[in-house]
């Protein structure tokens, strides 16, 4: 049995840019912005960084392939740099590289940085998957977009649990309304406007049954984390109890959901498996009782709903009850998306996984301003890439 | 005995009311009111002559062991490629053997009968046992023209062989001329036509009777023996007279189908023939004749075997399954005669990797996946390692065809963000009877028509068109069966 990552790596500092339509900022500018904040927070010098991991998804409109641009932009002195990509889970992938390097003793201090410049694609929404799925897939895959691919899970959910479509739509609207309310309190969020359930219910359809407010923002942004061993963290910041990585797990589809017929179309199997492994790694027996807060991958409202169940917090088929009870509101039992989530903070793909950790980190350090949750102990992040039937899911937990 | 052993038909679901066309363009050419009756069939935005020919072919194959087909002859003046065998693509879509002969007959709208004669000759000569002949056309008239009202889209298929013949081939007679009622030069999107009276009086009214008389004489058949005669002519009054000029009764003349499909060009003689065969009785003598650079006339005699043919949808079934196409602008956009804003999503098209397509040709064109011989699980796309988590066998697969399998809708959506010529883009998942699943586009339906659990069939469609490089790409889509 491997010993796992629990308590082996500390987060020394984090940074995150404002997400949004940063027309005046190029990807290099965003990289520098996130890096400077992280360095300030960590209190180290550039020469202390020994290796770096760079997460980006749409390399065609970012800095291109390879990780070379990261150390070139930051002028890191001939250290290692690796570009990692796992669709929308790229951010956590960069974090994983840095964390495992430190845990393995390959380096003392490592930088993980994710950045995305989606507003240069010329698309409202994500660019088409045209060449992104390979030469064979583009001959056989449907003319699908991300909203449509996840909308299939909404139809799957009502079909499996016999939920009335209007009841599901109402619950999904509450999820988005909640995230919007939280986004208002976050000066770095892309969208900082409250929206009512009524507005959401009546918004134009994007991919039935998902409407405009069921879909997250398309944004530019970057986020960074500097990680080290707990010993070095305590030495550099003697008066603080470092934030430690409690779990860092990943699960990828076996192919069953897409090509076999045992999938029920109403959940994301990789979230369930990654969550299971993360809870085991962190020693969590009852997530509904033991988690203090979480940032999940709300690319679409239905994804968040399914995640409540896939993370074993809401019982299967019963997430709507918890939503209606306010379980996941900022003042609820497990506040979800306290920073506004992908929905309002935005979703610059390569950065999102690290941005989620950033909010959990701020909350644990009592630096979340108007969003501050009382006495948080354990923060969970859930970062999902691909589609419900073909996905990669990373689940991480941090705490003291 | 050599003759027709099976037949199939395909009329696209969309029909445009001729009044809709007149409403849009009648201001320009009021004379078109004279023919603005009924409706004509219009291919969906994802259909072309090749897909329609395949659809008719699949209908005709109706249980026939595909390994028995020795060749595919396509006939069309509107195939998507000038050089690239469309019959070879059709052979792959029909999942036939490698050792087949193929040909595209493309020179005139009588090519459908030309191909039929060639197929019959080959079987008669003992060179091959079964040839599948499929004719299709995707016809375009300029906005406001008479032919815009006359032309329609469709396909029909005749399988020709020497066993279990349902209509025995008695002989043919051809006359061939460079008579230019209309023509289309290389790269021209539209036909050009000469004067209508001349076409009627010196074309249809001369060549068809000439070929009919030649056929009757050659086969020593009396005109009164003919139970049904099939020939195109979109001039309604003349159509009703032509056969009588050689003594065949007016009642024997099969309708020209103006009101229900329009003139489907190369397909039309076969479309009308299939329509006739679907009503035919054993002993009926039927003539199928064409027009276009001359006339071919073929004589058939229906046998008892026709009673054994079941499960063919044919032209009758196709005609019943219809949806209204409106407004006129939508038709014009489907046909690319008015420029529509494709936007960044509509314009985006990557190279087709032909080496990938070659390697995966059975999977892409034939919708052939694999079935694990250890656990009997069908899976698409074909796999080397079984997807069943309780199996995982390596390289224990056999080929498994999904194109002819029914299924049920597992989930679906209507996507307004994806580019579509007919928004929203509908796609989803079907789970096949017998096993296997496919995530793919739906077609020939509206979002409102759909329900989880609905029956599905698969249909061969043009999946994309790379305008920059002139590449039509094909794959399968889900056809939800709307009752």
Q: Could you tell me how far the N terminus lies from the C terminus of chain A, measured between alpha carbons in angstroms?
A: 24 Å
Uncertain spans of chain A: none
- Beta-strand fraction estimate of chain B: 25-35%
Count of alpha and pi helical runs of chain A: 15
CATH architecture call of the largest domain in chain B: 3-Layer(aba) Sandwich
Number of strands of chain B: 22
Global structural class of chain A: alpha/beta
Give the chain pair forming the largest contact, with residue counts. A-B, 42 and 48 residues
The shape of chain B, in one word, is: globular
Order of helices and strands of chain A: EHEHEHEHHHHEEEHEHHHEHHHHEE
> Strands across the major sheet of chain A, in which order?
3-2-4-7-1-8-11-10-9
Look at the structure and name the CATH superfamily of the largest domain in chain B.
Answer: Thiolase/Chalcone synthase
Average pLDDT of chain A, to the nearest integer?
96
CATH topology of the largest domain in chain B: Peroxisomal Thiolase, Chain A, domain 1
CATH class of the largest domain in chain A: Alpha Beta
On the 0 to 100 scale, the average pLDDT of chain B is 97
CATH superfamily of the largest domain in chain A: Thiolase/Chalcone synthase
| Tally of distinct domains of chain A | 2
Gyration radius of chain A (Cα, Å) is: 20 Å
Q: What is the CATH topology assignment of the largest domain in chain A?
A: Peroxisomal Thiolase, Chain A, domain 1
Can you name the CATH architecture of the largest domain in chain A? Answer: 3-Layer(aba) Sandwich
Summarize the structure in words.
The complex is a heterodimer of chains A (400) and B (483). Chain A has 400 residues and is an alpha/beta fold. Chain A has helices at residues 27-42, 69-74, 90-103, 137-140, 146-161, 165-184, 197-201, 230-236, 256-259, 269-282, 287-290, 301-310, 319-325, 341-344, 349-364, and strands at residues 10-16, 51-55, 80-84, 109-117, 205-207, 210-211, 220-228, 243-252, 293-295, 378-387, 390-399. Chain A has 2 domains: 10-125 and 220-242, Peroxisomal Thiolase, Chain A, domain 1; 146-211 and 244-399, Peroxisomal Thiolase, Chain A, domain 1 (3-Layer(aba) Sandwich). Chain A has a 9-stranded mixed beta sheet with strand order 3-2-4-7-1-8-11-10-9. Chain A has a two-stranded antiparallel sheet with strand order 5-6. In chain A, a hairpin with a 2-residue loop joins strand 5 (205-207) and strand 6. The longest helix of chain A has 20 residues, at 165-184. Chain B is an alpha+beta fold. Chain B has 2 domains: 3-334, Peroxisomal Thiolase, Chain A, domain 1, CATH 3.40.47; 343-367 and 402-480, OB fold (Dihydrolipoamide Acetyltransferase, E2P), CATH 2.40.50. Chain B is 24% helix and 27% strand. Chain B has helices spanning 18-25, 49-61, 86-93, 111-124, 146-150, 196-218, 236-242, 268-277, 314-320, 328-334, 343-347, 354-359, 361-365; strands spanning 3-10, 14-17, 39-41, 71-75, 101-105, 130-137, 154-161, 167-176, 182-183, 192-193, 228-230, 285-289, 294-302, 323-324, 368-372, 378-379, 397-401, 407-415, 425-432, 437-441, 455-466, 471-480. In chain B, strand 9 and strand 10 (192-193) form a beta hairpin. In chain B, helix 2 packs across helix 3 (86-93) and helix 6 (196-218) packs parallel to helix 7 (236-242). The interface between A and B is large, with 42 and 48 residues.
